Amino acid sequence: MPLSKIYKLYFSPQRKYVKTLRNLLGFVPGNLSLYRMAFRHRSAAVMLKNGTKNSNERLEFLGDAVLGSVIAEELFKRYPYKSEGFLTEMRSKIVSRANLNQLSKRLGLNELIEFDTKIVNYPNKQGSLLGDAFEALIGAVYLDKGYDFTHSFILNRIIKPHVDIHTLENTETNFKSKLIEWCQRHGKDITFELVANNEGDSSKLFTIQVSIDGETYGVGRDYNKKNAEKLAAEKACEALSI
């Protein structure tokens, strides 16, 4: 970034926000509006003239894809002889909502997120708030700085200092078992159902819906049916704060 632009950012009315981001992220942001949007939950968003809300949901979608790509590449290089199933499970552990929530806290993102304080009284609505903001941040960095910079940021600022991949490798996180046990303790009926994919999706993609007492609590999608069930169970556990 040109020194003139850095100078303007540091001495602009938003200089306090710029310095906060610089301290948290380790670099000076360029497009501040992207980062403000990344930390704006849909509950605090407003409707724009084009009919969309200025929430972080679109950036979250983008960040999820970029994060998944960087993690997949890193695992592919780190484990040259491991199977596709192993790599998929490791990636799922790293990008699980519970892990992203923790990473978001460690980076201090919870201090920046805008949301309607009314949802504080509803923990099940907060389950993915931190993780969603984390993914949206990755989307903002990607649009602001490009893929190479984002790749380096994810590995050197997040993965290396905050994620113990070796420990994750030896950690078994069975959300499906947790969910089934919880339902048994509370006398609830649970079903995992294979549902039709959206139009245009690959025929090899499995979409699993988990329902409890007839109400849907999570949907998982993967090219492996077992992994799709795990993803659906994880989302249900988040929604139920298990």
Question: What topology emerges from the helices and strands here?
Answer:
Blueprint: H1 3-10, H2 15-25, H3 32-38, H4 57-78, H5 84-94, H6 97-107, H7 123-126, H8 129-145, H9 147-162, H10 165-169, H11 175-185, E1 190-195, E2 206-212, E3 215-222, H12 225-239
Antiparallel strand pairs: 1-2, 2-3
Helix pairs in contact: 3-8, 4-5, 4-8, 4-9, 6-8, 8-9, 11-12
Strand content: 5-15%
Largest sheet: 3 strands, antiparallel
Biggest sheet: strand arrangement:
1-2-3
Q: Enumerate how many helices there are, as a single number.
A: 12
The pLDDT mean sits at 83
Unreliable stretches, pLDDT < 50, 5 or more residues? none
Supply the CATH superfamily name of the largest domain: Ribonuclease III domain
Name of the CATH class of the largest domain: Mainly Alpha
Query: SSE order in H/E notation?
Result: HHHHHHHHHHHEEEH
What general outline do the C-alpha atoms trace? globular
Q: Write down the domain tally.
A: 2
Overview of the structural elements:
With 242 residues, this protein is mainly alpha-helical. The chain folds into two domains: 31-169, Ribonuclease III domain (Ribonuclease iii, N-terminal Endonuclease Domain, Chain A, Orthogonal Bundle), CATH 1.10.1520.10; 175-239, Double Stranded RNA Binding Domain. Helix content is 57%, strand content 9%. The protein has a three-stranded antiparallel β-sheet, covered by helices on one side. The longest helix is centred in the first third of the chain and has 22 residues, at 57-78. The radius of gyration is 19 Å and the shape is globular. 28% of the residues are buried.
